[in-house]
Amino acid sequence: MLTRLYHHPVFREHLTTPGHPERPERIVAVEAALEAEAFQNLDRVLAPEGAVEAIYRCHSVDYVRRIARTIPEEGIARIDGDTVVSPRSFAAALHGVGAACAGVDDVMSGEARNVFVAARPPGHHAERETAMGFCLFNQAAVAARHAQAAHGLERVAIVDWDVHHGNGTQDIFWSDPSVLYVSTHQMPLFPGTGARDETGAGNIVNVPLRDDDGTDEFRAAFSEAVLPALENFRPDLVIISAGFDAHHRDPLGGLNLTEADFDWATGKLLDIAGRHGHHRLVSILEGGYDLQGLSQSVAAHVKRLMVG
Known about the structure:
- The structure is a single chain.
- By secondary structure, this protein is an alpha/beta fold.
- It has helices at about 25-35, 50-55, 60-70, 90-110, 140-150, 165-175, 215-235, 260-275, 290-305; strands at about 5, 45, 75-80, 85, 115, 155-160, 180-185, 205-210, 235-240, 280-285.
- The strands form two sheets. The protein has an eight-stranded parallel sheet, with helices on both faces. A two-stranded antiparallel sheet has the order 3-4.
- The protein starts with a strand and ends with a helix.
């Protein structure tokens, strides 16, 4: 079994305003990094369009319809000060959801050992009823619900190492102990959530880091909080909200991680998936806004996935 990569040209067609950090060049940089010789054995598959019914497991019908009505026929429309859409944004978001769900199907069937979804817009800030933080639909959350609905999994873990807290994922699973949400993130920082005492039904584990924290603090957080929570939960499937804006080059955060840290953390999560979930792991791109830091970090992450 190989590592499968989901990609699609539509992810370049979600246009944002000039100077916006969540821009098409992010996917261009990721795809260029994964064209290197080291990645020739990646199983590359076009992301399918997702079903809106899958989205309804995490977002209300009214919310999805509101997003659809916001899409302009031309130009750019604003949802809020940070979150914008263009004519192909809904299609891009649907393909992101489709890739996330297909990735779950792949690891469940054994067609792939693990999966990386190179999609945009990101998703982890999208709450059940609110789009924000560049995000429209919460792909990681939809993938978790798909794993439960389509494959009967009892315990799904979502691990989020984006520099920003995934308030949307926390909101969706706040009272559901069948999904463990574990997040390392900088605090204080947008969106202002993610304190240690935000624990939901005991299934939310927030491990905030401070501005200027780096390798030592991140790895300690993983070793002392993230990994023990996962071991105790024994997930049937691990989903990664793989944001790379905790990289030291990133303009939107103040953490000082390197690509070696993402490589290390990926290895630890592969170990967890191997012990408890038959090696099933799906990783979904979230943030990362310095193109060099993003491309180098994705390369390190996917190399580790390919080693398995």
